[in-house]
Specification:
The protein is built from 9 helices and 12 strands. Strand 2 and strand 3 form a beta hairpin. The strands form 3 sheets. It has a 6-stranded antiparallel sheet, sandwiched between helices. Strands 6-4-11-12 form a 4-stranded antiparallel sheet, with helices on one face. It is of the alpha+beta class.
Length: 364
């Protein structure tokens, strides 16, 4: 189905690479923890094997069927404010992620926004006639990307009106504290999501992520790489659908509300079920030619500060951090369970604007 249509972008810009937020995580495991993960790894292997077998069957077919229309998502209890037990649900992996979120919070509280990170972000946006900053379509870069160059699997927050309301309230409270010279882009509640996996990224397009080289000469610039064929897109969707339907939905638990040094206002999460971790691992095995740079944390972006990092003095940082701490106290431990995931062929930077298929998780 085709989701909301935002106003057409205008102008052009040359994209520059934006480093992902604090994605390098320490991977320390004890011998006992390694033994405990044997069953978990076996489950991942089953996910990947099933998807690989489907891939081989489709490659051996005379034709590839087009994607079938998505069914409507099932009803779910979206946001549960019952506090999850830290003893039972917080794994070693989650403890590592929690420490990362804490470091991100501390980096902003001590050093504010990173001017270079915001400068790198500016080409991805244009100034609209009303003076606001808006994300560019990938076709409107100086060197436009081919169609369907950006494809990703996400967990939408659309099942939770409560989370949309909370996100808007958090955003409003932080906007009131930002200096007037800061330019920001605010995500709509319908755009709230957590990225699980990119099969193709705007700075690293891969037309066929099932192949080790992504189906393209990787020495070519992003704009020079070919678009995926209809058959490749159909196969990719089928493989992603098989992976998602193989497991129960995750249960995401709010951990911290923070403003990163890169200018993004985030809801950060831990996965008490480890389903996101398993799905990411299965995607890596199923799509060996996917972009190497992938998300390793779970976060939802509420707004992006696009310019004005130098205006954020310590006198302004302190009350902003205090407000973020208030929201963390209010929301920490709230659990969100989606009814399904979305596979998106995105045509505009970071907004999920584009063709979307709803993929249902396995019934519990």
């Amino acid at each position: 189905m085709q989701l909301r249509q935002l106003p057409d972008s205008s102008g052009a810009a040359h994209p520059v690479f934006i480093e992902s937020m604090e994605d390098d995580m320490r991977k320390q495991r004890s011998v006992t923890q390694a033994r405990q993960r044997v069953t978990y790894v076996a489950v991942i292997a089953v996910f990947a094997l099933s998807a690989w077998q489907l891939s081989q069957q489709r490659r051996g077919s005379a034709a590839v069927a087009p994607p079938t229309p998505a069914t409507s998502p099932k009803t779910t209890t979206a946001l549960d404010h019952t506090k999850a037990s830290s003893d039972d649900s917080i794994t070693q992996r989650n403890l590592e992620v929690i420490r990362t979120y804490k470091h991100m919070m501390e980096d902003f509280a001590q050093d504010g926004l990173d001017p270079q990170a915001l400068l790198n972000l500016e080409p991805w946006f244009y100034t609209s006639p009303d003076g606001t900053r808006q994300p560019r379509r990938y076709s409107n870069f100086t060197f436009p990307l081919p169609p369907a160059s950006v494809r990703l699997l996400v967990i939408p927050l659309s099942d939770s009106p409560e989370m949309a309301t909370a996100g808007a309230s958090i955003t409003d409270s932080i906007l009131e504290l930002l200096p007037a010279g800061c330019q920001v882009y605010v995500n709509a509640g319908t755009q709230y999501h957590c990225t699980v996996f990119h099969t193709s990224h705007p700075m690293d397009p891969r037309p066929d992520a099932t192949l080790a080289d992504g189906g393209v000469d990787l020495t070519l610039s992003p704009a020079q790489r070919r678009p995926p064929t209809d058959a490749e897109l159909s196969e990719e969707l089928s493989l992603v659908r098989a992976l998602v339907s193989s497991q129960a939905p995750p249960a995401l638990q709010v951990e911290r509300i923070l403003l990163s040094r890169t200018g993004t206002l985030l809801i950060t999460w831990v996965d008490t079920t480890r389903q996101v971790e398993a799905l990411r691992a299965a995607c890596n095995l199923t799509f060996p030619g996917a972009p190497r740079k992938q998300a390793s944390i779970i976060h939802t972006t509420l707004l992006r500060v696009v310019s004005g990092a130098e205006l954020l003095t310590q006198e302004l940082i302190t009350p902003i951090q205090a407000e973020l701490d208030v929201w963390t106290t209010k929301l920490r431990g709230s659990v969100y369970t989606p009814s399904g995931l979305w596979y998106v062929i995105e045509d505009e930077f970071s907004t999920l604007h584009g063709t979307t298929d709803i993929l249902l998780s396995k019934d519990e």
